[in-house]
Every structure is written in C-alpha cells, then in structure tokens.
C-alpha cells in the first residue's frame, strides 16, 4: 500500500497539491543577541539595514510606528558568574592548537606560533563563518582554541584595557552574552561543548602588560538560556525600543540618525566626553 503523504497539523493535503514548507527560521548571530539584550529596536534596525544592503531593496523594521518604548529589554540576563579577571596573557602550551581565527578581524593578538595554527586550513575547508544549522545561529568568534587535554573554547578579543573602569564599563556584560553564543557555535561545529569561553582584553598601548581575561561558564544553564533567548527574539514581532543613555550612547543606528526613539542624539551624548591623556587614565 502506498504510504500516505504527511499532513500539516492533521489536515490532509488536497490530492495534486504540495504541502507548503514551514516558514524559514530567522537566523540569528551572537551580535543580534547582544543588541536585543540592550534594545530590541536596535537589533531590528540592524537587521533591516543589512537586509536592505543584501537585497538592494528597502526593508522596513518590523517595529510598528508608535510602539511604546520599554524600560528594559524583555530578555533576562544569562545565569552564572564569570571568573575573576586574570591578569596577563592567555598562556599557550606546546600542545595547544589554534583551530580557527576570524580572517577579517585585524589586530588580534598573536598567541600561537605558525606550527600550532590550523586556522587557515579550517577557513579554506569550511569558510569563514561558523554555522549552527540546528539552532539557526551563525557568527565568527575571534579565535577558537584547543588545549592539549582536548578542551575546545572560543576567545572573544576586546581591544580595551582590562582594568580601566572594569566594573563600570557598560560593554563588559554584553561580552558575556556574546561568548555564550560563541560557545554554542563551537559546540555545534566541533561536536564538543566548551566548559567556558574566554573574553580576552588587550590594550595595544600596553605591549602585553595590560592584557587579561575572564572565563565565562558554559553548561546546561547557559545553553538553555540561549535557546530560550533565541525563541523569545524570534517570537517578538514588535522589537520595542529601550531608550536610555546607557544604550543610546553605544548605538550605531543612533549614530547614523536612524532612531526616532533615541533619548538623545548621538553627538549630544558624546559632546562632553573628555579624552584624557593616556597617562592620566586610571589603572589598578
Ligand atoms: S537610539 Fe536608543 S532607543 Fe534607539 S535603537 Fe538605539 S538604543 Fe534603542
């Protein structure tokens, strides 16, 4: 007997017609998750802007005109505490390997001698973006390292001084979100779940002396949080703005004059910024 054609939601298809495919899942990147956590409208403006560039057609943001702004993003913070900041360079042993390096990122610290780097070979074979087809996530960590004991983990490099305003700096918390998403990309690509990811801070002016890093844990709690975060983002068809100085002053769409909800214009938010001479900045 001929097997029945599968039906959608229990409804048998009309003979001669094909079953419509489900709508494609919205692909997300670690950057999307970071911007959504700050301000969903910022993520939506980015998405519309990139789609417009890619397709050559103007894509409008989903956010309806007149949407009421929120006091904070609907995305809860991720669970778990990062390790204390470790000063100094990330130590590389003779049995450690560099598995991947973002080929378009210049100025990354050179931690591995050429004979311990497989990064070019990986990019030649698999391309420069890590893609998790199962979860619909893709992105580029700065580095992926395999330790001699088999541990694989991503490294996200931030060209900033580890100790300068470490606890006050608004960006540091977002680095944690980004690394959790990159841990998932490593897990999907190499089939081995990292125990942690690394945010590696370096300051070019310090010649290595001002470098340091934190380890961000990655386990079931963080994986579940990420999965729920991606579900929430995809289900949100409003993507409301969260206008606040702490958000709007770091917002590229605000810099480009694209946001009608901004608490203040980008220039106004940066007008009083004083560039202190480097020697007068505070170091611990
Ligand atoms: S300017 Fe402010 S409200 Fe507008 S998208 Fe950026 S962070 Fe959100």
Commentary on this structure:
With 284 residues, the chain is an alpha+beta fold. The protein has two domains: 30-74 and 236-260, no CATH class; 86-230, no CATH class. Helices cover 29% and strands 13% of the residues. The protein is built from eight helices and eight strands, in the order H-H-E-E-H-E-E-E-E-H-E-E-H-H-H-H. It has helices at 30-38, 40-55, 119-126, 171-190, 220-235, 245-248, 252-255, 266-270, and strands at 86-87, 97-101, 130-132, 137-139, 143-146, 152-158, 196-201, 212-217. It has a six-stranded mixed sheet with strand order 1-8-7-6-5-2. Residues 1-13 and 275-284 have low confidence and may be disordered. Iron/sulfur cluster (SF4) binds at residues 39, 41-42, 45, 241-243, 247-248, 251, 253-254, 259, 261-262.
């Amino acid at each position: 007997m001929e097997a029945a054609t599968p039906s959608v939601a229990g409804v048998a298809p009309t003979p001669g017609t094909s079953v419509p495919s489900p709508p494609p899942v919205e692909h997300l990147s670690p950057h999307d998750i970071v911007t959504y956590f700050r301000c969903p409208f910022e993520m939506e403006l980015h998405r519309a802007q990139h789609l417009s560039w890619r397709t050559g057609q103007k894509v409008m943001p989903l956010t309806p005109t007149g949407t009421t702004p929120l006091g904070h993003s609907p995305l809860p913070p991720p669970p778990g505490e990062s390790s204390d900041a470790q000063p100094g360079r990330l130590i590389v042993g003779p049995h450690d390997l560099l598995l991947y390096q973002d080929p378009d990122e210049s100025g990354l610290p050179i931690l591995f001698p050429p004979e311990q780097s497989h990064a070019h070979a990986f990019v030649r074979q698999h391309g420069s973006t890590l893609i998790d087809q199962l979860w619909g996530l893709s992105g580029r960590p700065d580095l992926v390292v395999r330790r001699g004991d088999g541990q694989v983990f991503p490294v996200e490099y931030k060209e900033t001084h580890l100790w300068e305003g470490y606890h006050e700096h608004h960006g540091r918390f977002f680095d944690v979100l980004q690394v959790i998403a990159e841990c998932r990309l490593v897990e999907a690509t190499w089939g081995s779940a990292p125990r942690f990811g690394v945010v590696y801070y370096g300051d070019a002016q310090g010649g290595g002396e001002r470098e340091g890093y934190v380890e961000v844990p990655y386990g079931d709690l963080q994986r579940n949080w990420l999965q729920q975060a991606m579900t929430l983002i995809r289900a949100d068809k409003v993507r409301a703005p969260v206008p606040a100085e702490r958000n709007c002053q770091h917002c590229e769409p605000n810099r480009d004059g694209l946001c009608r909800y901004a608490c203040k214009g980008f220039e106004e938010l940066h007008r009083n910024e004083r560039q202190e001479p480097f020697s007068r900045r505070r170091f611990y």
